[in-house]
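Hi team,

As requested, here is the filled-out complex form for the manganese (II) ion run. I kept the field names the same as last time so the parser does not choke. Let me know if anything looks off before we queue the next batch.

— J.
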Amino acid sequence: MKLARFNEGHIGIVVDEEIIDINDLVNKDLEAWPLVAMNRLIAEYQQFEPTLRAALARPRIPLSQVQLLTPIPASSKVIAYPINYHDHATEMGRQAKANNLGFFLKPPSSLSGPSDPILLPDLPDRRIDHECELAIVIGKRGKDIPREDWQDYVFGYSCLMDIVVRGKEERVARKAFDTFCPVGPWIMTADELGDPSNLRGRLWVNDELRQDANTRDLIVDIPGMIEIASHIMTLEPGDIIAAGTPAGVGPIKGGDHVKIEFEKIGSMTVMVKQTSGGRASIFETTAAVS
Ligand code: MN
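And here is what came back:
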């Protein structure tokens, strides 16, 4: 099943090129904050599933008539693995890889969706890059999860762009701007996707193919990423793991459009918009940080 958020935050099921509004079943209070209806649906999915299946008979709205939103706006954390493909390690000249480095976090406030532009900070001297990543959505609370149990904790998958200002400042500061984590266009549930260890993912900028990789080439695989993260922190339903990027990262600028696609999941295209904000003082010099 493909679960999405759309328009004013309604939750829907996507079938082919249409969406079925199931908001009345799973998200009765649209005004409630934080926006945790999808987290709750994920946590209680087994109870909800028969109701959702029955809702497939409801009227459908063409996807072209709705605005899709990021599927889990109140994910408690986005766990992101850096340097998790050998070819990306080579292009960045890095020795240390995800199996030694572990992960960093992107804040939930950096999440954006298929209808939101990537808003670039006003840092003209800095390169701002796209990274094409598989998003793994956690379905069940867990701590110290052994790698062989990984499937019990995965709810589904989505496409994720890890946007980054290049430089030597702390990774989080360079990767945490609002809209620096587009996720979408929906969550494809794990039962429908099948084996995620052989998924082709691609990213284009203005129709030029920039990244083309397969999850079989991950350094730390999906069971390993869940095991490592869960030894450090409790994973919660709706948490997102960004699997890392393959080679081909490159700069984006205002006016570009960036398309990401993972096979069996779907694709989305987001615009890039230059803003005049975001000039944090830490970016004023190429300071002697290492
Ligand atoms: Mn990344």
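Two things worth flagging: Helices lie at 23-26, 37-43, 45-55, 86-92, 98-101, 171-175, 190-193, 222-232. The pocket of manganese (II) ion is lined by residues 80, 82, 131, 133, 162, 242, 244-245 (CB under 6 Å).

Thanks,
J.
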